[in-house]
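Hmm, what's this shape?
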Amino acid sequence: MRTGYEGTGPGAITPDGCAVELYSRLPVEGEPDIVAGAVPAGSRVLELGCGVGRVTHGLLERGFEVTAVDESPEMLERVRGARTVRSTIEGLDLGGEKFDVVMLASLLVNTGEEAVRRGMLATVRRHVADDGCALIQRVRDGAYENLPKERRFEDAGFTIRMVSSEPVGGGVRSAKVEYLFPDAVWTQTYRVLPMTPEEFEQALAEADLKVDRYLTDDRVWVRVVPV
């Protein structure tokens, strides 16, 4: 495990505390539709941190050509129909290959590790075509305030509970989440840096990227282009 990251529960756990079996159960929440509404049909997509292919499979169904990247072999074993690459995001270099769309979802841009965040954004910039774009999912403003709080998924029969969020310095917080299913419980503890839109845009600028537009009213999904 990376420092500050931990996961508990049945099955394999990745270095950042994600449980493979848990992520295979989580539903898709409109992410493929957000992508389809923001980029040309049939685009070549580089999906960074694809996990078990929860979003990947929806993109393939919509006609996108997807290269799916993850550092966990157990996660990649669940991906079907896409080209897969095992790598950390910050360490990825596909030898000059460029993509119409680079995706950095799952709030990864808000990692509490500054060097990793810079490396991730450098990977985005390195792989996005000059006339392409990146789609980035950032932490919702206020997401780590007024805890604990929970969200119930009635149709799927489980609850996600944000348990705590404690400051550890430099604006970084140590967050703990519980995933409560009838037959199993998983937890994940991780480091997160909530950023205002201005701080987020400054991080992009340091990687020679800029906001094209915010795609959702809560400014969580962002279309980003090269400078």
Residues 20-141+195-226 form a domain with the Rossmann fold fold (CATH 3.40.50.150). The mean pLDDT is 97. The radius of gyration is 17 Å.
